[in-house]
Amino acid sequence: MSKVNKTVRAYSIKLTDEQFEAFDKLFNEYAKVENEMLKRFCGIQYMSDICKWSIIRDKIRAEQNKIKENRKTDDNNNNEGNDSKKSKNSKDNKNNKNNKNNNCNEVVKNTENTKNEKNKLTTPKLLTEKYEIQGWHWVMATKHACSTLHSMWSNLGSRLKTLVRDNKNLTPEMRAYCYYILSAIPYWQKVLLREPFDKIPEKLATLMSKLTDEELKKCNSYICRSTRTHKPYPEVKNARCMMYDVNMYKFTDDCTVKIMSNIPKEAIEIKLRGPFCYKKTGDIQLIFDRDKKRIEIHKLIKARATQTTSKIEIGPDKGFATLLSCYSGNEYGYEFGELVTERSDYLNERNTNRNIIFDRQRKLKDEISELDKAINKTTDDSIRIPLIRKKKEQERKLQTLETNNIGNKKFNREQTKAKETIKNKVNYSIKLMLDVEDPCTVGLEDLTWQSDKSKGKKMNRRLSLWNKGYLDERIEYIGSTRGIKTIHVNAAYTSQYCAKCGAKIEKRIGDHHEIAVCPNCGEINANTNASGNIEGRIHDPEITIYTPYHVVKDILDRRYAEKCNKIKLIKAI
Length: 573
What we know:
The chain contains 16 helices and 16 strands.
């Protein structure tokens, strides 16, 4: 029986004030270490090293050991120098008992002490001294940073592949070469560093043989230029996540955990709300929820996956008004658009009401600043005293406004509640679709909703309420637990051509453009029609996921023209 990765969670009870302060300091220091690792190793010279984080760890460990050795040698040299100077001073004191010589020796000692203090300031510090953490913390922060950087480079590669696909100036052979380079991080690094390849595999050699020197140079320069343009620079903004090794925590029982603190030989003991019924080994993630004053423990386990015997393939079309539509005619998540609209408009109304309060706050601050200027200008007490009283009154109003009416806790709580409601709707619709359709393979189109002025502010706000890619992620995960395979297909022109006859859709009508008008088939459901096109591209050899959209259009037009010619020949016969 196959297994899939699954994240389980455990929650602690409410932390005490001492525990909260200790965790707050620990998470902040950990985030500083992780930010240093991200800034240091996000360059192209470390692309291949971060794939094996132990290389980075050993490098930093060697640097830390070198600092310790330098300190030992400096201490030994200082001790030897002090011993020799003491012997010299004793001989001088025996021979010369004048006060002048003693004063000179004291001046020499003071200058030597200042030199030692300067050397201590200039010598580099250990990570444990610089950030007030233990050694295991910087090791796990390095591992965490390397995993973040590895996912950054893989995501950047998939993004650059879409740019290569849509670039009309590249030939198919050039695109194939760029796809290979962006998929292999060691060769991608060599291209960015302008270095020759050490070993060229057969597939890469055949791709390079189809290109001229000028085309190779053009491809490499395009990869370098697009990489430097779109490369992100990750940063830990909210210190709320830490990775812990098995040596850094210990379960005293099923409901109690001892966690390594930033102080040696001291642990922070927290109690869980329920028993932890999984293996108490391996890496865990600690999530610090400051609003609820609790710690979340996340652990990755292997869960059993059932196997399906079905041979049905589906390609659900993803939309806003109706979440999922299949070619069988079934649609799931009818009220999804209404739910998102309701939640989004409610939050927008809340923000509009809050703007009145923010405007009041700004006016009070302006009045206080103007009163300060008026008070400083005059020296007459008959004028100053009323102004000072008025200023104090305005400051009291501002204080009450900021303490009682201005804050983000309630708004953030309502926003997270709205997002969780939408996520529950998404998960329910996916499970219902997989239960009813019972597929063995699901074709997924690329769904990236980006902010666009043509859509309008309201639509962009509604689309931004739930995370991009969450739907695909949940389809892949829930499908993997049931033994269902997911395949990503090209989404170009899936809603603009008829799935039955292949003709181009003339127009779309309806409140949500849910009805498409085909010149041959008449009025059809636009969502289920797009699902039929997605389903047909699962095994389409001509239209792959990285086929350019203009090439897809030419293929669809050619197929329809060939089909019309066949029909004419049949009628003529």
